[in-house]
Each structure stands twice: as structure tokens, then as C-alpha cells.
Write a structure and sequence with these properties.
The protein is α/β, with parallel strands linked by helices. It folds into 2 domains: about 270 residues, Aldehyde Dehydrogenase, Chain A, domain 1; about 190 residues, 3-Layer(aba) Sandwich (Aldehyde Dehydrogenase, Chain A, domain 2), CATH 3.40.309. It has 15 helices and 22 strands. A 7-stranded mixed sheet has the order 14-15-16-13-12-18-19, sandwiched between helices. It has a 6-stranded mixed sheet with strand order 9-8-7-10-11-21, with helices on both faces. Strands 5-6-22 form a 3-stranded antiparallel sheet, with no helix packed on it. Helix 4 packs parallel to helix 5, helix 7 packs across helix 8 and helix 9 packs across helix 10. The radius of gyration is 23 Å and the shape is globular. The termini are far apart.
């Protein structure tokens, strides 16, 4: 039985710097549970002095300890012990995740936490499987390259999958030998503190992994501006990504990995299996109540299958099981905050005002006093200029457009701003490959929607959907810099 009482759930709260929990609060922010809207704790807001302390701690540990200089295999063993502790504390971490986030306890315990452990192990295994190369030079010279960590990596994680997204940032950076200062979202700040405590218990030297709490405007900006930070990795909105680039430039040019907004199409061609397509389309927009960067929020379907696919998708989207995140039976998430709920509703209402028709949804789900639950919504009669087709809604809202031929379908799928992901449904391999070539997006799924647990496959966006890749060998290599050497050795 995974049900738990949120009122009696203990949670580590504060900054975690140099291996110690700092619970001192001079300025604070309340933290609300999205399931019932109640403020259940408050977190400290890191000011510039606290950020300086965290970055200084990370830089000191990077220089003082052998984390970066030891045999990479030894570093990998420490990270694997960390992953084992994550598995051992699965229920505890899942409860912390479900306590104040949108992640239902059954999903957090069944997927989020085990996936986090797998992510740590995956990148740990890359620690000793990289290196430089000897260059082709004259016989009198020896030219070669070395790969080295950057030093201190600033990681800013989003609220939609707090532990999973933190793992995407932490695991490759630490495996490559860097130190990390992580700022979680102020909306979901708790579970990563316990994760940091487990890292120290596993043998990660104090100061190599630090957590600061706070908002983006003060704490996040101070972290990005800090001259001791050598690289930045962030997942979140395109607007925030642009602000991070501007802030980081204040203290010099820094490499960064940015996974940003998405407005991903799901294209159903005339030869697709309508039942498979409907199931994938529904899952692609219902997951975490649509609060996913790669949410498949635009159904673009051939006119021959439009009615059948839309009808089946609507039936599936109407069968969700909402509830508090601390109940095991809950399968459909609340919206993270009332502010985000209002934004979702505002975009839906404006799109209807522009001429779209609501097929299902377009309302608040009843029976959840204080909770922000938005009913799964399908909007038909949508054009590409309407708000819900243009803007990232970040809610369970699916728009429907139809097409007559392949060229028109691919034209509708292309978005002028976003290029994060896309789904294709067809039995024709040649058509699928043509679409893969055509679409300007970073990830394409064919006859499925969503990532597998093949962590070797990178993810990241085109256009304003980001820079660089998370996951895969690319994410590990992005946490290393290359040094060249040329030696005269004579003949």
C-alpha cells in the first residue's frame, strides 16, 4: 500500500552545502501542494552570499579532493553506490516527490525513482570510456588531445519531474568529474535535498554536489552570473533559457545545455493503425497532465482517419483517474499551481474565442477542494495561428488539425518557434523516413510516443527548443572540455 499521510511526512528542507543541511532562513518562500493548494512548508531563498558560499564550496571540493583526478573507474563505483542507495530508499524518495509535486505516488515509486537510479548507473559506466586521441602529425612531433571536466557546473532543474530531471543534469556532470551546484524549482524543492544526502553517504565528497533553494529571479540569476561557474545546464521554458543566456554572459562566455519549450505534433497518416495512434496520442498528452516538455499537444491527422482517431482519443482521455498525489490509485496529475492552471484555462478560452470548438474538457475537474485539476481537453477546428496551437500550454490540452496529403501534413507539423519532438504514425517505412528527414525537431518517435529507457538515445531540441543534448553519450561529452598538446620530439 503506497498511500501516505502528507501531514505526517517528514522532509529535509534547506540548502545543502559542503555536505551539510543549512536550515537557516532569512528570506523565505512558501511551498504549496498542488493536490490541495495548501502551503505545507517554506524554503530559504539563496541570496548572492549563499550562492557564493555554494559555488565556493563546489570549487574548493573540486580542487581539494581527488574527485576529478582519481581513476575514473573509482568515481564510477561511488556513483553506482549512490544509485544503489536511491533504489534502497525508493519509497522514501517517492513520497518526498509526491508530497509537493504533480507526480502521483504510484508513478514516482514505479518509474521516477527507479529511472533516476538507472540514469546514474548509465552515466557512471561512461566515466572510464572516454579520452583523447593521438593526432596525425609529422614524425618529429607528437600531437594529442585530452578531455577534462569544466570544474563547477550550475544545474537548474524544472518542477515537472524533479528527481528525473535533476538526474539528467547531475549524473553526466558528476561522472565526468565536475562539481555541481543544483537549484531545484522553488515549487518542488524537497526531494533533491535527500538525494544530495544519499550522494554523500555513497562517498561523493562533501561540496561536490550542493543544493541551493530559491526563485529564479534572485537565486537562479545569481548562480548563472557567478564567475566561479564554468558551465550551465537547464531545463525549462524558452523565455527562461534566454534569460539564463543573458545572465551568464555578465561574467563571461559559458557553455550551456538548454532543453526548452516544445509544441510537439503527432502526425497520423492515412495508413496508420487508428487504435495504436489513439492510444499513443492520448498517452502523449495525458502524461503528468500535459506538463511535459515533449507533450504531444498537436494532433495532425489525415482526413480519412480524422473522425475515428479523434473519437477514440477522446474516449481514452475521458477515462482518467485524478486524485491527490499521495493516493496510490491516482493516475492523473494536478496542475502544479493555481497560476499555471489559470494560464492553461486562459489559453483554452482564448482559442475558443478565436473559433475553435471544445470536444471534451474546457473545465475544472470537480471534487478536489483547493486542488488544481484541469479536465483533459480536445479542441477541434483549430488553425495554426490560434493560441493553443501556437503557444506551449503545459496542460492536458490537445488541438486537432487535419490534412489531405503528406506534404500538407508535414507543413502543418512544422512549428515556427519550437522543434523539440514529434510522433509519426504510418505503416509505410519510406514515408516515415521522409518525414524524419523533413521535420526540424530533435527527437522523432514512429508508431509510439515517448522515450524508452534506452538512455543511450539523446534528447534535445531544434530552433528555440534548446541547445545541446541531455542523455546519451552526447550529454556526458558536453560536460568535458578538450585540451590539445603538440610536442617536438625530434627525429
Amino acid at each position: 500500500m503506497l498511500d501516505f499521510d502528507p501531514a505526517s511526512q517528514p522532509a529535509p528542507n534547506g540548502h545543502f552545502i559542503n555536505g551539510k543541511l543549512d536550515t537557516g532562513i532569512s528570506q523565505s518562500l512558501p511551498v504549496h501542494r498542488p493536490s490541495d493548494g495548501k502551503a505545507f512548508t517554506e524554503i530559504p531563498v539563496a541570496d548572492s552570499e549563499t550562492v557564493d558560499h555554494a559555488v565556493g564550496s563546489a570549487l574548493g571540493a573540486y580542487r581539494r579532493t581527488d574527485w576529478a583526478r582519481q581513476a575514473p573507474r573509482n568515481r564510477a563505483l561511488v556513483l553506482c553506490r549512490w544509485a544503489d542507495l536511491v533504489d534502497d530508499h525508493c519509497i522514501e524518495l517517492a513520497q518526498l516527490e509526491a508530497l509537493g509535486s504533480t507526480r502521483p505516488i504510484a508513478q514516482a515509486a514505479g518509474w521516477d525513482v527507479p529511472y533516476l537510479a538507472k540514469t546514474i548507473r548509465f552515466f557512471a559506466e561512461l566515466a572510464d570510456k572516454h579520452g583523447g586521441e593521438v593526432a596525425a602529425t609529422a614524425d618529429s612531433q607528437l600531437g594529442f588531445t585530452l578531455t577534462e571536466p569544466y570544474g563547477v557546473v550550475a544545474a537548474i532543474a524544472p518542477w515537472n519531474f524533479p528527481l528525473v530531471m535533476a538526474g539528467w543534469k547531475l549524473a553526466p556532470a558528476l561522472a565526468a568529474g565536475n562539481a555541481v551546484v543544483l537549484k531545484p524549482s522553488e515549487l518542488t524543492p524537497l526531494s533533491v535535498v535527500r538525494l544530495a544526502q544519499l550522494a554523500v553517504e555513497a562517498g561523493v565528497p562533501p561540496g561536490i554536489f550542493n543544493v541551493i533553494q530559491g526563485d529564479g529571479k534572485q537565486s537562479g540569476e545569481a548562480l548563472c552570473r557567478h564567475p566561479g561557474v564554468s558551465k550551465i545546464t537547464f531545463t525549462g521554458s524558452t523565455a527562461t533559457g534566454a534569460a539564463i543566456m543573458a545572465a551568464s554572459a555578465a561574467s563571461g562566455i559559458k557553455p550551456m545545455t538548454l532543453e526548452l519549450g516544445g509544441k510537439s505534433p503527432q502526425i497520423v497518416f492515412h495508413d496508420a493503425d487508428p487504435d495504436l495512434a489513439a492510444r499513443c496520442v492520448a498517452r502523449g498528452i495525458l502524461g503528468n497532465a500535459g506538463q511535459v516538455c515533449v507533450a504531444g499537444s498537436r494532433l495532425i491527422v489525415h482526413r480519412r482517419l480524422r473522425d475515428e482517431v479523434v473519437e477514440r482519443t477522446a474516449a481514452l482521455m475521458s477515462q482518467v483517474s485524478p486524485g491527490p498525489t499521495w493516493h496510490e490509485a491516482t493516475g492523473f496529475s494536478p496542475i502544479i499551481s493555481r497560476k499555471q492552471y489559470d494560464r492553461v484555462d486562459r489559453i483554452v478560452k482564448s482559442t475558443i474565442g478565436q473559433g475553435a470548438e471544445p470536444l471534451i474538457g474546457n473545465r475544472e475537474m470537480e471534487g478536489f477542494d483547493g486542488g488544481a485539476f484541469y479536465a483533459p481537453t480536445i479542441l477541434t477546428g483549430v488553425t495554426g495561428e490560434m493560441d493553443a496551437a501556437r503557444k506551449e500550454v503545459f496542460g492536458p490540452v490537445l488541438t486537432v488539425q487535419d490534412f489531405e496529403d503528406e506534404e500538407e501534413g508535414l507543413m502543418l507539423a512544422d512549428h515556427p518557434e519550437y522543434g523539440l519532438a514529434a510522433g509519426l504514425y504510418t505503416k509505410d517505412l519510406s514515408r516515415a523516413l521522409r518525414a524524419v528527414r523533413h521535420l526540424e525537431v530533435g527527437t522523432i518517435w514512429v508508431n509510439r510516443y515517448g522515450r524508452s529507457e534506452d538512455l543511450i538515445i539523446p534528447t534535445g531540441g531544434y530552433k528555440r527548443s534548446g541547445i545541446g543534448k541531455d542523455l546519451g553519450r552526447q550529454a556526458f561529452e558536453a560536460n568535458l572540455q578538450t585540451k590539445s598538446a603538440l610536442i617536438e620530439i625530434g627525429t
